[in-house]
């Protein structure tokens, strides 16, 4: 079965970062621009990996996650954020409710993105990186 | 039947008839008798008396002599001539003890004779005596007539023996009584006289004492009459240079300076012209004053006797040759005969020298003013200090507020920047991945990435500064400082190589790991090294030395550069937020203040020494244990 990834962030730059990085991988990458949009997609497809922003207009990251877990309690979710203090309490309550997630700090570069994806979904990459990262 | 006999001979023993034209005297007598249980009736003259006698049937008649209509003698004669009426004893009251009156009394055949003013007790004795008598009076035929010589005159008397004796005896008794009373009065008079003498002596002594007192009193005591002339003044006037006799008989204004007179005397005020203030009435001698005319505590100047003047009363020119005094006085009033009205006859008063007191008061006032002035100065000084302090504090507070506001703003901006920065970073990296290293664009892309990473770092700094730390690094972990430094150096390697900076690192072997927040300490080292690099750029000698030293409690890290140094004046400001020696646009000025915060949180120390134009040394201490 194909491995599907979804990137949920209201910023174009973030979504593009992921799609560029994962373009030459074997994975299907979907993007959603809002929590509501994400839920719609979740109802249509099954995902194995989720990258989720916290601060979004409309449904924020926490609320979106809760809804996602209702649909799919198993999928791996990475919350990517610069850690707004305002979400700290919500994140704590999520942990208490035994809603699983991982945390990632923005900004993250392509290397980190690849490393992470590989470790979660297994191999599936083409060799592409020409080094030169500092 | 004894009762009947009694009844026959005496009428009811309790009834007495008073015949007296003076209603006052009649009333008095009536009261006296009624007090003793007698029943009393009054008639106003002889005629009325006779009438009442028949109706009232008294046991005794007491009668005055001189009355209108019919006098007492005549009435008595009529009574004694009448066989029915003669039984009633008659007592005659009269003022005089003229012997002729006694003759008349004899002729009238009265039973008793009492002089006025009478002693009540005596009269009542006589009354009860008369009432107790049971004599039967003789008829007029038994009367004898004889001649008597009294006070040079011959009188014919027609009376019976018994009657005459009775009358004469009672007259004699009267005389004796009167004599007694007279003697008593004499005695009392003598005693009163003695008392008077005693009192007079005492008064004399008292006066003497008073006189001595007044003479020796230091205050001037005086008496002036209603015209203001001295009738008495004591010795104390010597202080002004006067003798007592100089002033007695003179007007009091002799002691006052002419310019003060309007204040004191109303008369002079009227005379004084040319727009003198007439609103306040004079204080001492207002000739119009009435009532008690009391003055208390009036302060005036007294004029001493001017020895150079031809006669007393000339104005003295010398200013301090005067006496400052306080005058207290009261009016004297004489009671006019008649007892009710009082006439003003003069004033007595005391004049007390208050020159010394005034001087002391003045000195006290000066001292008080001086004290107040000093206190004011002190207060003013204190106030100024407080004000400066307040201003300082306010500024600090404002600064802190600004900081807080900026912090929040910065945090907000930082968060906002993270998203586009991530985009830029990844876009550049993607491009780099798909560019041939030989391509000239390659290097440019690399530079772009570096700059982007710099931006990211700045944003991180900002977030740290506003205490928005990442979740990683809440707890300390044991870390190797050497490797931390190497990572930092690596970050700066590009610039170091480019600028050909000589970087040396000295690390002792066996350096222990210490508990730190790696991210934060990394940031500190990065900041300091970065500053060092900036410092040596543009210098001839570009050297940076990093040395790590192990101490018992701490690990010490020294970063030394041969840069242009820091001015002593600026040295203490370097940790201030937003303080920067870099031109605007380069750096935020937050670097060192963040370092300070981080080191403080690690319970370490950071120190800086510098020689301007030569070198700068930063030293950091981090505790080895918790």
Folded structure, characterized:
The complex is a heterodimer of chains A (134) and B (626). By secondary structure, chain A is an alpha/beta fold. Helix content of chain A is 40%, strand content 19%. Chain A has a five-stranded parallel beta sheet. In chain A, helix 4 links the parallel strand 4 and strand 5. In chain A, helix 1 (12-22) crosses helix 5 and helix 2 packs parallel to helix 3 (61-71). The longest helix of chain A is centred in the last third of the chain and has 12 residues, at 110-121. Chain A is globular and about 35 Å long. The model of chain A is unreliable at 127-134 (pLDDT under 50). Chain B is an alpha/beta fold and 626 residues long. Chain B contains 16 helices and 19 strands. In chain B, the strands form five sheets. A five-stranded parallel beta sheet of chain B has the order 2-1-3-4-5, sandwiched between helices. In chain B, strands 9-8-12-11-10 form a five-stranded antiparallel beta sheet, with helices on one face. The longest helix of chain B has 79 residues, at 355-433. The radius of gyration of chain B is 67 Å and the shape is rod-shaped. The model of chain B is unreliable at 1-11, 269-279, 307-320 and 468-473 (pLDDT under 50). Chains A and B meet through helix 1 of A and helix 11 and helix 12 of B.
């Amino acid at each position: 079965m194909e491995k599907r990834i979804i990137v949920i962030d209201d910023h174009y730059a973030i979504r593009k970062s992921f799609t560029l990085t994962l373009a030459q991988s074997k994975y299907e990458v979907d993007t959603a621009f809002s929590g509501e949009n994400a839920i719609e997609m979740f109802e249509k497809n099954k995902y194995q990996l989720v990258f989720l922003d916290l601060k979004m207009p409309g449904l924020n990251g926490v609320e979106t996650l809760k809804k996602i877990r209702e649909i799919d309690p198993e999928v791996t979710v990475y919350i990517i954020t610069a850690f707004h203090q305002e979400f700290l309490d919500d994140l704590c309550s999520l942990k208490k409710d035994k809603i699983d997630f991982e945390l990632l700090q923005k900004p993250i570069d392509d290397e980190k993105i690849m490393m992470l994806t590989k470790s979660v979904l297994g191999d599936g990459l083409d060799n592409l990186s020409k080094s030169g990262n500092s | 039947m004894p009762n009947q006999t009694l009844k026959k001979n005496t009428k009811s023993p309790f009834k007495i008839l008073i015949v007296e034209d003076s209603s006052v005297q009649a009333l008095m007598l009536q009261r006296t008798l009624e007090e003793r249980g007698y029943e009393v009736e009054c008639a106003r003259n002889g005629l009325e008396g006779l009438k009442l006698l028949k109706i009232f049937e008294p046991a005794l008649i007491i009668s005055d002599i001189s009355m209108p209509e019919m006098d007492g003698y005549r009435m008595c004669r009529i009574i004694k001539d009448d066989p029915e009426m003669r039984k009633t004893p008659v007592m005659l009251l009269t003022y005089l003890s003229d012997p002729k009156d006694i003759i008349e009394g004899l002729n009238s055949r009265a039973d008793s004779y009492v002089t006025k003013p009478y002693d009540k007790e005596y009269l009542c004795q006589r009354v009860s005596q008369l009432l107790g008598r049971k004599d039967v009076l003789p008829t007029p035929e038994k009367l004898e007539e004889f001649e008597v010589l009294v006070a040079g005159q011959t009188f014919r008397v027609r009376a019976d023996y018994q009657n005459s004796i009775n009358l004469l005896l009672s007259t004699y008794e009267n005389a004796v009584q009167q004599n007694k009373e007279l003697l008593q009065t004499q005695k009392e008079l003598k005693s009163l006289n003695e008392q008077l003498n005693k009192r007079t002596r005492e008064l004399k002594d008292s006066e003497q004492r008073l006189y001595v007192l007044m003479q020796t009193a230091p205050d001037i005591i005086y008496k002036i009459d209603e015209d203001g002339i001295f009738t008495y003044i004591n010795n104390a006037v010597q202080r002004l240079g006067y003798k007592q006799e100089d002033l007695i008989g003179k007007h009091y204004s002799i002691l006052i300076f002419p310019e003060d007179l309007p204040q004191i005397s109303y008369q002079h005020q009227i005379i004084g012209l040319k727009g003198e203030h007439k609103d306040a009435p004079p204080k001492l001698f207002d000739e119009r004053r009435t009532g008690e005319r009391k003055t208390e505590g009036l302060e005036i100047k007294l004029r001493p006797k001017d020895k150079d003047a031809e006669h007393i009363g000339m104005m003295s020119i010398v200013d301090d040759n005067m006496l400052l005094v306080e005058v207290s006085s009261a009016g004297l009033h004489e009671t006019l005969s008649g007892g009710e009205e009082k006439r003003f006859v003069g004033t007595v008063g005391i004049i007390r020298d208050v020159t010394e007191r005034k001087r002391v008061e003045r000195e006290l006032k000066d001292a008080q003013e001086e004290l107040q002035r000093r206190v004011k100065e002190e207060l003013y000084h204190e106030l100024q200090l407080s004000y400066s302090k307040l201003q300082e504090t306010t500024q600090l507070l404002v600064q802190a507020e600004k900081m807080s506001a900026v912090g929040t703003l910065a945090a907000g901006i930082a968060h906002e920047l993270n998203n586009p920065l991530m985009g830029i970073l990844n876009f550049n990296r993607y491009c780099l991945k798909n560019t041939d290293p030989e391509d000239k664009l390659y290097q440019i892309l690399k530079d772009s990435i570096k700059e982007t990473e710099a931006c990211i770092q700045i944003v991180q700094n900002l977030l740290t500064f506003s205490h928005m730390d990442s979740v990683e690094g809440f707890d300390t972990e044991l870390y190797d400082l050497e490797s931390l430094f190497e990572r930092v150096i690596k970050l700066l390697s590009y610039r170091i190589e480019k600028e050909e900076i000589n970087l040396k690192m000295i690390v002792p072997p066996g350096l222990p790991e210490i508990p730190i927040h790696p991210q934060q300490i990394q940031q500190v080292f990065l900041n300091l090294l970065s500053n060092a690099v900036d410092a040596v750029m543009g210098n001839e000698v570009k050297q940076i030395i990093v040395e790590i030293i192990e101490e018992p409690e701490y690990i010490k890290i020294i970063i030394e550069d041969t840069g242009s140094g820091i001015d002593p004046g600026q040295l203490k400001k370097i940790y201030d937020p937003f303080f920067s020696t870099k031109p605007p646009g380069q750096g935020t000025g937050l670097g060192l203040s963040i370092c300070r915060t981080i080191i403080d949180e690690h319970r370490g120390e950071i120190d800086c020494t510098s020689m301007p134009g030569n070198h700068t040394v930063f030293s950091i201490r981090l505790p080895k244990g918790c």
